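User: Can you predict the 3D structure for this chain?
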Amino acid sequence: MSLSRGLARLLTRPVGEAARARAALHVLDWVGCAAAGARSPPGETMIAYGRTLPAGRCRAVGGLSLSAHGAALVNGAVGNVLEMDDFYRAAIVHPGPVVIPAALAAATQETASGPTLLDAVVRGFEAMIRVGRSVGPAHYKFFHNTATAGVFGSAAACGSVLGLSEDALVHALGNAGTQASGLWQCRLEDTMTKQLHNGRAAQSGLLVAELARYCFTGPSLIFEGPLGFFNAMCPDGRPELLLADADEGWLIHGTSFKPWPACRHTHATIDAALAVRNQIEPARIRRIVVETYRDAIALCDNPAPATAVETKFSLQHAAAVVLLRGRPSLADFELSAARDREVAVLARKVELRQDDRFTSVYPARFGAALSVQLEGGEERRLEVPDAFGDPENPMPEPALVDKGFMLLESGGYPRSAADAIVSAALELPRRGTAATFMDLLR
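Assistant: Here is the predicted structure, written as structure tokens:
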């Protein structure tokens, strides 16, 4: 049995009420991130492009009504802009911004019910996470896992909505693998490419699922074949993880929610800074030391961020802005924050250290410690083994609802409209359809 057939068979398990309820929270989380992300420069640019696409019955952010393919692209591009979208640690993927727009597009096109939509989300998360956790660190060095694993997740989600047979889903996964792409060069430059990664992964998964419904074939050995995904793109991949632990329940339950608008690698540091801030006067700070795992430093060592994107990928900025301002807001990771002289001065006092204790348990756990040395020789230190929002340190549902309201209102929705969207998302396990839910985004 090929790996893709094993994955297809695993995805046909029935989805229970607990998994559907969890998926509804992820839909709420995505819609808030997308609404606020739509007002960013990448979001506005993608919406402007969306206005040139053919009209259709699928709702997209920005008041657009597009074809399913257009909606998947536009909606897929905006949910990750603010870096507040969900995250699975061991796979280093953000499932929601890819899987949910694809599932919504397919479910709207097929006039599918809320439960059918949520089943698709659960299955899409499963496929994306399983691929992401198997690719290995060398893949992540060059490739954006959310994009490369994401196309498998969106294919699985759309295949669920379309009711694909096992054979058809194998073909869809095979053709998804030929489109797995997303190079990290975009992280080193001030571009909008990262949003294109997500949008195309969502759109491409819908395409291959639709083709499979019409008996368009794809390679059944796309994962393990001599010219397949693992041999081509994953030099230290672990294909055995793709189908491992099939009886452990749906992996959506292990997905983290993100409370802060910055790269997940900065969140344990932010949590530690918040706790330390209550014990100090920022004016007395002489030196700050952040100890964390290797990848956090590799991706987020930027003592002088010059753009909004760079602030989100800077441990120094994250520590400084939180120690000065407290709970971080969206504005603390925008261009104006990069130009804040007080924050910049404090960020220069931050020293980063790789700590083997945190590196040895990464990516299963994302931890950090923060030490602040004060005038007079005093020192305050706090260690955070798991960032807020991880399964070991979860965000309670009221906090997720509050986050949804904050993001929707940041996206321009009045409280009454935000209330309707939040309520409709939480009701999806019992009633409603993808189309009626997305109509609320008008």
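The mean pLDDT is 96. Residues 3-259+402-439 form a domain with the 2-methylcitrate dehydratase PrpD fold (CATH 1.10.4100.10).
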